[in-house]
Design a protein that fits this description.
The protein is of the alpha+beta class. 44% of the residues lie in helices and 19% in strands. The longest helix has 39 residues, at 150-188.
Length: 367
């Protein structure tokens, strides 16, 4: 093989790292490596410590129907595994350096599976080894080709540390994605409106409740963000100068809309000090309408506390602001009956007084 020019490999290494942001692009990167290195297949396999496959990528689809028999039997007797396990993560090896023709002639793996299916040489190594996962990257030659030469092994040795780094960053990124997904899911189910604002009040994010409440602040907020001549923008400047939260109350025909504006902590954004200035979201705007609190439904209260249907209906009604007397009249039962039911509700919920019960009910996230 002619020595591979670095300028041909560098763009693929860049695409390898770019696949962290777009995991679906990784198979294409492996296919491009297969073509550039002139090998017959590239495979990347990530598995857990119980040998269950987490990710399996093969650039040659012809191998896919054969993998079941390998995984069921030949994987356990594959002598190449022991070599990989003995080598540090990121160090390349070539099977021809460890298994000569005499060994191959006696090996069940080679004689019963690899050679009958046309496969012969492999080079690669371990690219991940931690408490949760292991991963191998391998480059394959089919039967009839010579072992990997020094020039090609030099390229593989250059590539492996990049794959190691890419997989480490991929795991870290995946963890951050999971945290972000959980946070966004929680935000969408809050009864409060939450909006993210930029340095000058640009609207970066709004959950569903905020999207419903922001139009009620038309004198202060536009679709793009805070109006420069509005009260909320002046509060943002105050928040910036003072470094702590400020609040605003917007009276309305029915109730009022309460606004809390607070700076986002650097620690919340997981950013080092030097990266903070480039952060898009610098402030949170939290909105709450006094008339829009939604209480957990009676069916949810029944499941949470083991209430009877009548007790659950009473608890929900009290949480919504009804009095014992009003509830009794509306449901055609005596006040004494309702008080008896209330006593059972207090006992089952662990509260001692009706005000404590109502306060607790207000804190339950409704389904």
């Amino acid at each position: 093989m002619a020595r591979l020019p670095l300028e041909q490999l560098s763009p693929l290494i860049a695409e390898l790292y770019a696949s962290i942001a777009t995991p679906a692009a990784l198979p294409l990167v492996l296919s491009q490596l297969e073509k550039l290195l002139d090998v017959d297949m590239v495979h990347l396999r990530i598995f857990n410590n119980q040998h269950q496959t987490i990710l399996k990528l093969h650039t040659n689809p012809a191998i896919l129907p054969l993998l079941a028999s390998y995984d069921q039997h030949y994987y356990t007797i594959d002598p190449r595994k022991a070599v990989i396990r003995q080598k540090p993560v990121g160090e390349a090896y070539c099977c021809a350096d460890y298994f000569d023709d005499a060994f191959v002639s006696r090996s069940a793996l080679y004689q019963d599976w690899l050679i009958p299916h046309g496969w012969r040489y492999v080079a690669g190594g371990c690219v991940m080894r931690n408490q949760q996962h292991n991963a191998d990257l391998a480059f394959h030659y089919m039967l009839g080709r010579k072992p990997f030469d020094q020039d090609k092994m030099a390229v593989i040795k250059l590539l492996l540390p990049h794959v190691v780094q890419m997989l480490q960053l991929r795991e870290q990124t995946q963890a951050l994605r999971e945290r972000a997904a959980i946070g966004l899911h929680a935000l969408e189910h809050l009864q409060y409106g939450v909006a993210g604002l930029g340095e000058e009040g640009e609207l970066r994010y709004a959950n569903r409740q905020a999207e419903a409440l922001l139009p009620q602040l038309a004198d202060h907020v536009r679709p793009s963000g805070l109006q420069r001549d509005g009260q909320l923008y002046r509060l943002l400047q105050q928040c910036r100068l003072q470094g702590h939260a400020v609040s605003y109350r917007q009276p309305q025909a029915s109730g009022a809309l309460h606004c809390l504006l607070l700076p986002v902590s650097r620690s919340v954004m997981w950013l080092p000090e030097t990266d903070w200035n480039g952060c898009h979201t610098r402030y949170l705007l939290i909105l709450n309408h006094t008339r829009q609190h939604r209480l957990a439904p009676a069916s949810q209260l029944r499941e949470l506390f083991g209430l009877s249907p009548a007790e659950a209906r009473l608890a929900h009604a009290l949480g919504c602001g009804q009095t014992v007397e009003h509830y009794a009249a509306a449901n055609c039962v005596s006040v004494n009956t309702v008080r008896t039911q209330l006593s059972q509700v207090l006992q089952k919920t662990g509260e001692s007084r009706q005000p404590d019960l109502i306060r607790m009910l207000m804190l339950i996230p409704p389904l």
